[in-house]
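Section: protein folds

Sequence with per-residue tokens
===
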Amino acid sequence: MSIRQNRLTESVLREPNWASQHGCETCQIGKFCLPLDLPKDDCAALDRLMYVSRAQDAGRPLVHAGDPLRAIYAVRAGCFKSVSVDPDGNERVVDFHLPSELIGLDAIYAGTHPSDVVAVTVGKVCVFPYKALIGLATRNPKLLNSWLRSFSKNLLGQQAQGVDGAADQRFAGFLLRLSWRLPLRGELNDRFLLPMSRIDLASHLRVANGTLSRMIGHLQNAGMIRVDDRLVEIVDFDSLRRAAGAAADISL
């Protein structure tokens, strides 16, 4: 792996800088998880109920399907994946979770997690015990509104991933969204490292591994992207957006 790839790997895996403690107010990526203008007392209350997990090794489950909902997790470092298993035992990667993104929102309705959540890389999460978080949110309209917006955004993101269209459209849309989510959410990047394997990516896109390789080759030959192992460079954003069609919304 090249020096440039190593640096990009570190940008995905490294923990954000924390000023003095593991608090939301001082966290580099906290502004993407929670509202910026929470009163200081509410930030302090949030910090008191939150704690940071130990490092999760790649392949280690964070939660199992069927586990009761005990906490909402915010990815602090690394990458996680949600994996579902159909009645025939076939696994599918439902979603990937990157720094600042929330895990556990899909467990609120039933009170249990619908899928396994597994570390793709070495990672850490901020843990917000659910009952304490709900108690705080119901006393603070801004925090409650922030969580409702997160629920809505999560739903829209799932709809964007599930749009009907050719596999290459879904792949182009995925790359566009990833360019916005990595290395730090909210900053558009033309060069990033895929934290997931091609096997997991193919599973997420619902295509065979060979089909994914052909799609990568097609986009490269068209001059839209360059790919070197897991290093991706978007050369032509406009053409990639046109190729993505209905899946082109990078803000989801």
About this structure: The longest helix spans residues 141-161.
